[in-house]
Design brief:
Helices cover 63% and strands 1% of the residues. It is mainly alpha-helical and 720 residues long. The protein has a 3-stranded antiparallel sheet. Helix 14 packs across helix 16 and helix 33 packs parallel to helix 35. The longest helix has 28 residues.
Length: 720
């Protein structure tokens, strides 16, 4: 780059000073970026250069440079020298005393490792930084705008399959998001600098160049346009000459903006769904049962009715075609795109259909609106099942008063070999089997019929994308749908690993994930994990140890009963279970599983702490069952008759076999996990018919709350 700069940062004089006074030749590009960004963030310039402060140093190095500057390894290494020289220059001007000078240098030392890591972090890669890296790697003169444009022209003309792939695990949407964030960050900083120039200019003069468009009385539109152009010019200086300008103009197809990636909106919907279910995007969904190989994607997409119609230019889908890039950039992807680009195109088509379904919902039909507005929910729910088929009628029953047994909610629906294209709610016998509710009547079937037909109508619209199938009452994701939805989830930064990644996890990660997956899917993942390691007894014991550790660390969020169900389905051998009998946390769970298999197991080996852990889980489940009865009665504005006693009955049965009875059992439950025990103990205090037990429960509640409060304070103190 040249030594000329458009902003009044004192760059040229500073570089000359460093060379003559310190015998140091500083690299102009990072020096320009550092000085400009400090100045844009309001650094004082009375010494002729932007004066660094610890706060500004951290902001520029950690937040700005990783998005805005392309730097070679040598230039990155020189950034500390730039800031050190700048601090020395300001101190020479009498603007920094020794103490403030030392604080700035300390901030540089602290922030440099951060910026080195951030510059190499793929999540900070923008389109200008990506292409600046590529063209330099090919020996292009990055300071020659004509050479840069010629390189871009050659890249745009190259077949899609020959273009460089983004570094893993990035998608185009990630780079687009980072580019958009960088552009907004820089434009906002320029706007703030403009306001400062107008309202309180520095004695060193205005920071921004004097142009007619940057005069205070210019129209807002002209001002915005000029600031955006200045942001592009700065980006060019910090990446490659003319690069950002070309990527926002004739070669914008190489650097798609958010509007060119419609599936980003669907990704946000999937993220919302995941957070509603799990509260954390890092909690992984199960891998799909079948994902096509890269060589199969094109044929599957071309065979799908709607994508084929879009590519053919059918008049009845012209609005969707335009939304998905037909005619336009999607045509090249359709004919010669890479597998990844074809999956992205499939995602754009799917997102467009989800949007069309929502826009076409009938506001007078509650059932239709429920599903139309939640087509994204339908897709997310199918993927979360691990690719197993669902029943339309069973899913629709969730919008009625019928309650499906929990063990059937995630059960795979049988897919018939064939069925008529129109949807028909299953017969009473089939419906009873699907819902696990014997004795259903025609009235029940009639209640389900409305929401079932509404859901089937939405599913049938989704089937045209090639991502969803419906055969009779069964529906699910196709292999293409698994690939497309998984891509959209990844764009939304929802953890969606494939089977190979799952098999590579350690035992703790495996246990943490499979407890949330449908039982059959979780069991299959456990089987694959243990098989990959030889399925020996020590391997199974490793999983059991992980369950015990997880339960000890987080009682409430570790679903031990569910985990043992998945281990049982995966056919965990008896040997590791026997070895776990003495475990102070899961010993009782191991004993119960062995007993259910008819295998002899000495209960005397099970520690009381393990028995109390299992009992607290069971009692909490009974509490939940009682509360459901109370809530159902309250919805009908009545008292439950008879009053539910599942918790009280289970407690009395457990106390009868506990050493020391209720007086010993209640504090034992408190010691297992005070926070989780509180609601069980409070309910026993309020509803147990034996006054002595109620009083003991009241005392235990006080102890549990006090202990839980101390634990919470300790965690806050340790920052956990």
């Amino acid at each position: 780059m040249t030594r000329t700069t458009a902003l009044n940062t004192g760059l040229d004089a500073f570089l000359d000073w460093a060379e003559t006074e310190r015998r140091t030749v500083l690299p102009p590009r990072p020096a320009d970026a550092v000085l400009t960004l400090l100045a844009l963030h309001g650094a004082d310039r009375r010494s002729g250069v932007p004066e660094p402060t610890p706060e500004l140093v951290r902001r520029v190095l950690a937040e700005d440079l990783p998005l805005l500057l392309w730097a070679s390894p040598d230039e990155t290494d020189a950034v500390p020298s730039v800031l050190t020289a700048l601090a020395d220059r300001v101190r020479d001007a009498g603007r920094l005393n020794a103490k403030r000078h030392a604080r700035v240098l300390a901030a540089v030392d602290d922030a440099v490792p951060v910026v080195v890591r951030a510059l190499g972090d793929p999540r900070n890669l923008t389109w200008p930084r990506w292409y600046a890296s590529l063209l330099r790697a090919e020996g292009v003169d990055a300071d020659d705008p004509e050479a840069v444009r010629a390189w871009l022209a050659a890249l745009a003309a190259a077949p899609h399959a020959e273009r460089p792939a983004l570094p893993e695990p990035l998608h185009r949407s990630d780079v687009t998001a980072a580019t958009f964030a960088a552009r907004i960050r820089l434009t906002d900083a320029l706007l703030s600098a403009f306001a400062h120039d107008v309202e309180g200019p520095s004695p060193a003069g205005p920071l921004l160049p004097a142009t007619p468009a940057l005069e205070a009385d210019r129209p807002e539109e002209a001002l915005t346009s000029e600031l955006e152009a200045l942001a592009v010019a700065l980006t060019d200086r910090w990446t490659a000459a003319g690069l950002a300008e070309a990527l926002s103009g004739p070669y914008e197809g190489l650097a798609p903006g958010p509007e060119a990636l419609p599936h980003v909106v669907l990704a946000d919907r999937f993220l919302d769904e995941h957070l509603d279910h799990h509260g954390d995007s890092a909690i992984p969904l199960p891998p799909p049962a079948a994902v096509p190989g890269s060589g199969e994607i094109r044929a599957l997409l071309h065979a799908a009715p709607l994508p084929a119609a879009l590519a053919a230019g059918s008049d009845d889908v012209r609005d969707l075609a335009e939304q998905c890039g037909f005619p336009g950039p999607a045509e090249a992807v359709w004919t010669e795109g890479t597998p990844q680009e074809l999956v992205e195109l499939g995602a754009d088509v799917l997102a467009a259909v989800v949007e069309r379904i929502a826009a076409g919902s009938d506001p007078d039909s509650a059932a239709d609106e429920e599903y139309a507005l939640d087509a994204a929910h339908v897709l997310y729910g199918l993927y979360a099942r691990g690719g197993t088929p669902e029943s339309v009628a069973r899913k629709a029953s969730g919008h009625t008063d019928l309650t499906v047994p929990p063990e059937l909610e995630d059960a795979p629906a049988a897919v018939p070999a064939s069925a008529p294209p129109g949807y028909e709610t299953p017969s009473l016998a089939e419906l009873s089997a699907l819902l696990g509710l014997p004795g259903l009547t025609e009235d029940d079937r009639s209640v389900i019929d409305g929401p079932a037909r509404a859901l089937a109508a939405v599913v049938d619209q989704l089937t045209r994308t090639g991502c969803v199938f419906r055969t009779g009452d069964a529906y699910g994701l196709t292999p293409l749908g698994n690939a497309v939805v998984r891509h959209v989830l990844a764009v939304g930064h929802v953890a969606a690993p494939d089977e190979h990644e799952v098999a590579s996890w350690d035992a703790a990660r495996t246990v943490a994930a499979v407890q949330y997956w449908p039982p059959a899917v979780g069991a299959a993942a456990v089987t694959a994990w243990t098989t990959a390691r030889g399925a020996t007894d020590p391997v199974w014991s490793e999983l059991l140890d992980a369950v015990s550790a997880a339960k000890s660390a987080d009682f409430y969020r570790t679903l031990t009963t569910g985990l043992f169900d998945r281990l049982d389905r995966a056919r965990i051998p008896d040997g590791p279970l026997r070895a776990a009998l003495t475990d102070p946390v899961i010993g009782a769970h191991a004993h119960r599983l062995l007993h259910s298999r008819g295998e002899p197991a000495d209960e005397g080996l099970v520690p009381l702490t393990a028995r109390a852990t299992l009992l607290l889980e069971d009692l909490d489940a009974r509490w939940t069952a009682d509360m459901r009865v109370f809530v159902a009665a309250a919805d009908e504005d009545r008292a439950p008759e008879p009053a539910p006693t599942a918790l009280v009955d289970a407690f009395d049965e457990a106390a009868a076999g506990w050493p020391g009875g209720a007086a010993s059992l209640l504090p034992a439950l408190t010691e297992v996990d005070p926070a989780s025990a509180v609601r069980v103990l409070e309910d026993l205090r309020g509803r147990h018919p034996d006054g002595r037990v109620a009083d003991l429960a009241a005392h235990a509640v006080k102890s549990a709350k006090a202990t839980a409060k101390r634990s919470a304070a300790h965690l806050r103190g340790t920052g956990r």
